[in-house]
């Protein structure tokens, strides 16, 4: 009676990434009302600079009242429905994007398409660039939402580019070639590569060499590159961020060549400004046909005129954006340092990172075996025993078990300290168990019987997920 798209599995919501959020919702930590509840560390939200945004709003109340130069523009905004977007907002947005790249590149507002967040931008690009059952190559580990955003409604396939811890998950030519070949063996025509730079979940930026490698590969195979740069304003340490558009522009011989029209940027204000609820994203492309088609498609997910009005006012205030970006960088760096030093004290290492709202944490030594089953056991222990929702690497399609993404910018310093303390206690208890029981096997048996109890809990939440 219903289409195949409404079946629960096609959406990807049954992944441990989304299940963890559901478990958190059932028992959320609150310092006073639920001190033993689950701490949410699986959500890449940036809540560190709300005070700056709020103080800007306070001193710019005219904007909130739909006024401009003392006159009401309420009616104008209420009636505005041009899917090309407000010119003032698009100008402010392209200038902000240049600022994020140290003003090394300029963006043309006519090549920009507004979308309801990066979610919509990525899906729209898939509709524009590929047919159903054509493939995009995506380096692993990747943002779990891509299984929904790139595939669900478009029918596009993702073929992973397997990256490994042996070279800190960098993209190398043999991995690209292997993914391309795998796609062909599966019968998929490869239409492009989608990268996330800075990476979610790694928290690293791509090197110029990696970007050049991707460009060369895309030229050789005559395919597209989509670069999701949603975290470009979260870079808090060296090396600085290089956008693929910079690398491309620097190769002067490539300007106005085929590849010039096959590189597309995705961006959104969800992470850098911490405004995922405002649903502001965009596609930037030199390809006029893509821009024209995506603009028409944006009718299905426009950014409201009142949001455009508010943010054009905020982003065109250069004094504000400069201060915001500097402070955001400082606060993110401090948070990340807190998390990695806390974990390191317990002998847990993170991948060296310079960006993002999370760390990619190596918990391989806590696994009972080098398997994804053991990773899931540890994840369940973390959520039900330790009281932390963190994302297992398998939900990001990591090829090696034992890596977890831990977010640090959506909670207070006190909560982060508590989370690290909980990990410390967990490691202490586990070590004591090994010492008391004598062997690791006995300890694991004890852990397993506990886990069996949790599995039944998890089963009920899976049943819940099926009903969504
Ligand atoms: C890499 C990446 N792309 C896209 C999104 C979706 O962002 P938006 O809120 O702009 O739709 C996220 C959100 O976590 C993300 O990490």
From TrEMBL:
Every Aminotransferase class I/classII large domain range: 39-423
SUPFAM superfamilies in UniProt: PLP-dependent transferases
Highest taxon of the lineage: Eukaryota
Matching Pfam families: Aminotran_1_2 (PF00155)
GO biological process entries: ethylene biosynthetic process; fruit ripening
UniProt keywords, alphabetically: Ethylene biosynthesis, Fruit ripening, Lyase, Pyridoxal phosphate, S-adenosyl-L-methionine
Enzyme class, first EC level, given as a word: lyase
Entry annotated with the keyword S-adenosyl-L-methionine: yes
Catalysis performed (reactions): S-adenosyl-L-methionine = 1-aminocyclopropane-1-carboxylate + S-methyl-5'-thioadenosine + H(+)
InterPro entries: Aminotransferase_I/II_large, Ethylene_sulfur-biosynth, NHTrfase_class1_PyrdxlP-BS, PyrdxlP-dep_Trfase, PyrdxlP-dep_Trfase_major, PyrdxlP-dep_Trfase_small
Pathway assigned in UniProt: Alkene biosynthesis; ethylene biosynthesis via S-adenosyl-L-methionine; ethylene from S-adenosyl-L-methionine: step 1/2
EC number: 4.4.1.14
Listed cofactors: pyridoxal 5'-phosphate
Ion transport is among the record's keywords: no
Any one GO MF annotation of this record: 1-aminocyclopropane-1-carboxylate synthase activity
Family statement drawn from the similarity comment of this UniProt entry: Belongs to the class-I pyridoxal-phosphate-dependent aminotransferase family.
Subunit structure: Homodimer.
Protein's UniProt name: 1-aminocyclopropane-1-carboxylate synthase
Organism annotation: Erythroxylum novogranatense
């Amino acid at each position: 009676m219903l289409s195949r798209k409404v079946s629960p599995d096609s959406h990807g919501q049954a992944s441990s990434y989304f299940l963890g959020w559901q478990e958190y919702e059932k028992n959320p930590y609150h310092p006073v009302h639920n001190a033993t509840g689950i701490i949410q560390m699986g959500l890449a939200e940036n809540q560190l600079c709300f005070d700056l945004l709020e103080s800007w709003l306070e001193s710019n109340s005219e904007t909130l009242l739909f006024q401009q130069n003392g006159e009401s523009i309420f009616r104008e905004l209420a009636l505005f429905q041009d899917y090309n977007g407000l010119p003032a907002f698009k100008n402010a947005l392209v200038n902000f994007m240049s600022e994020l790249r140290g003003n090394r590149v300029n963006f043309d507002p006519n090549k920009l398409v507004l979308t309801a967040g990066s979610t919509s931008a990525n899906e729209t690009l898939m509709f524009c660039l590929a047919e159903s059952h054509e493939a995009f190559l995506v380096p692993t580990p990747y943002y779990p939402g891509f299984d929904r955003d790139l595939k669900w409604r478009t029918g596009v396939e993702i073929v992973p580019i397997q990256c490994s811890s042996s070279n800190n998950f960098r993209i190398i030519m043999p991995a690209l070639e292997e993914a391309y070949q795998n796609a062909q063996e599966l019968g998929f025509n490869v239409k492009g590569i989608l990268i996330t730079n800075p990476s979610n979940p790694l928290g690293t930026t791509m090197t110029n060499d990696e970007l050049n490698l991707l460009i060369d590969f895309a030229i050789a195979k005559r395919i597209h590159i989509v670069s999701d740069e949603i975290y470009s304003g979260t870079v808090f340490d060296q090396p600085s961020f290089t956008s693929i558009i910079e690398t491309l522009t620097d190769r002067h011989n490539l300007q106005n060549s085929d590849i010039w029209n096959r590189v597309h940027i995705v961006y959104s204000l969800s992470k850098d400004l911490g405004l995922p609820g405002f649903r502001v994203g965009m596609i930037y492309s030199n390809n006029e046909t893509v821009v024209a088609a995506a603009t028409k498609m944006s009718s299905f997910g426009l950014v409201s005129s009142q949001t455009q009005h508010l943010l054009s006012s905020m982003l065109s205030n250069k004094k504000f954006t400069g201060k915001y970006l500097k402070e955001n960088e400082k606060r993110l760096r401090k948070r990340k340092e807190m998390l990695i030093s806390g974990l390191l004290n317990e002998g847990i290492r993170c991948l060296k990172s310079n960006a993002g709202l999370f760390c990619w944490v190596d918990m391989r030594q806590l696994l009972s075996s080098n398997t994804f089953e053991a990773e899931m056991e540890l994840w369940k222990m973390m959520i039900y025993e330790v009281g932390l929702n963190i994302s297992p690497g398998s939900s990001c399609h990591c090829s090696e078990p034992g890596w977890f993404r831990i977010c640090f910018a959506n909670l207070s310093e006190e909560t982060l300290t508590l989370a690290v303390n909980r990990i410390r206690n967990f490691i202490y208890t586990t070590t004591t168990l090994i010492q008391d029981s004598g062997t690791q096997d006995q300890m694991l048996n004890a852990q397993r019987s506990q886990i069996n109890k949790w599995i039944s809990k998890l089963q009920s939440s899976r049943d819940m997920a099926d009903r969504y």
